[in-house]
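anyone seen this seq b4? input:
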Amino acid sequence: MLGIYIYLGVIFLIFLTFFMMGGKKYKEFIQEYKADFKFTAFAPMSLAMIDTLKIMQRLAPQLTSVNQKVIQVYDYRRGHGYTKMHIAELISISFICLLFSALFGAIDGGVEIIILGLVLATLLPFLINKQLDDKIKKKKEDIIIELPEFVSKIVLLANAGSNIEKAIVRTVSQRKDANTHPLYRELKEVAAGINNNSNFAEIMEQFNKRCGVQEVSVLTSTILLNHRRGSELIISLRHLSRDLWEKRKTVAKIRGEQASTKLVFPMVIIFIVVLVIIGYPAMSMI
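predicted toks r here
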C-alpha cells in the first residue's frame, strides 16, 4: 500500500512541476490550436515537458512520419505547431491514465488498476496515431467526392467565356465552406496565388502536392497541358468529369457499406438484450 502512495506522489509531483513550469507561457500557443485538440487543459504540462526534455529534437527521426501525417491532416503551413500539439496531446492522455489509475489504486489499494493504467498509457497513444491514417483517408475521400462538382463548375464557367484562372477564383469565392472543406481549403491557396499573379504552373503543382490524391494529379496535368488551348481544355475536362463522377459513386458506395457494417454490432447487442428480457421470464417459469 505504501508503494502505491509513493507512486501516486511521484506522478502527481511530476504533473504539478511541469504544469507550473508551463503556466501561462503557452496560453496563446494553445489557443491557436484549441479547436483541433481535446485535452488542452493538460497541454501546458505536456508542452513544458516537451521543451524541457527537448523531446522533439531528440526524437526527430522517429517523429518524421508523424509530422508528415499531421501536415496532411491539418495545415502544412503550421506543421511544426500542429505536430507539437499532437505530441502534447499524446503525453496528456498518457498522464491522465497514469494519474487516475494511481489515484483509484491508492483508494482501493489494488495494483491491478495501476497496471491497467500503465497499459492504457502505452496503448492509447498508438491508437490515436492510428487515427491519423483514418483522418488522411477521410480527407482524400472528401476531396474525391467534391472534385467532380468543382470540375463541372469550371467547365460551365469556361463555356461562358471565362479563362481557367478566373473560373477557379470565382468558384472558390462562391464556396461558403472554403476554410473548412479539404479541397476548397487548398483551392483557396490556388486562388490567392492567382490573385497575386504568381506562376500558374507552380501554383497548381503545389496544390497537387498538398492534396496528395491521384485524381487531383490527373486534373492538374489536364489543366496545365491544355489551359491555353480553349476548347480542347473544355473537352478534356468534360471527359475527366465523367471519370470523377464514377469515382465519386465508388467512394459513396464504400462509405455506405462501411456505415452499414458499423451498425451491425449495436444491432447484435440490442438483439441479445431483447432476447434476455423476453427469454429470462420464460426460462424462470420452467
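Residues 37 and 86 are 8 Å apart (CA to CA). The chain has twelve helices and no strands. kinda curious what u guys think
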